[in-house]
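User: Structure please.
Assistant: Input sequence and predicted structure:
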Amino acid sequence: MNYNFFQKKLHNLCLGSKSIKKSLFEIEKLIFHNSIKIKNEKHIFITSLPRSGTSALLEFIYSSNEFGSLLYKDMPFVLSPNLFSKFSSKKNIIKKERMHKDGMFYNLNTPEAFDEVFFLTFENELDWENNFLKYIELILIKNKKQKYLSKNNYNFKRLHKIKKIFPESKFLVPFREPLEHAYSMMTQNLNFKKQQNDDKFVLKYTNYLGHLEFGNNHKPWFKPDAYKDTSSINYWLEQWFLYFKELLSLKTNLDNCYLINIDKFCNNQNYQIDLLKKLNISEKTSFTLNYKKKIVEENFDKILFEKCKKLYIDLENN
């Protein structure tokens, strides 16, 4: 993360205080939100465990140019995207590899998971649903679009809440082979720990965004049962099992929730086309998907892995 001293201070100011975040949002609403509602509510919300292919799916759909989303250039003013876009001198820059060091690159016009900042600020308040609706509208006003596209790994616990606000929206949940996925999460956790130890601001940054998936501020999605050591692949394999077991239960009453096998999605063009048809999205996407399978040589709990494999088949059949 190559933020200079001024940029770090600006992030601390804009994202470190709930009162400032609320004030920026109120100013944004006052100036830019009008009585005209966005009529199209066919938004798309991508959610899953990290390292499941959510970013690739986000960029693939965003490349259709049919959706508005939060972008890197909206940082750190993610709660007032219209206001500060008028003063911003940010220009598009050459893409660089993101801090995950996973071969995915971004620039200022790349969409990213920033709307968790809204939930951290407003979700526990009585009028959060109304504010969320307005927030989506403000993002669409800025982008001059009718449909919103979000990637937020924590929205899995809000599926029914969001559906209540936007009943015509669709939810996409990518999943991948459990052992390989668990290994990817384990190695990414080590990567973020190192970065946070090397640069204290990285820890602040991930806290500001509510990205607690990896690193020294990691919080498990579910209370660990047999495995609590995050340096063990079994911890991540157990989290995989608990997460997708719960997700299948949540999906029962969601007819607009689609499970996406990311292994097939990245390697099968017909699978991609079928998904675009389901979502009523143009096939004019331009994002290239790169996916390479990894050989996992870690020792793992064979019984737990068998349970995960059976659940993986259930995900395939849903």
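The chain has 13 helices and seven strands.
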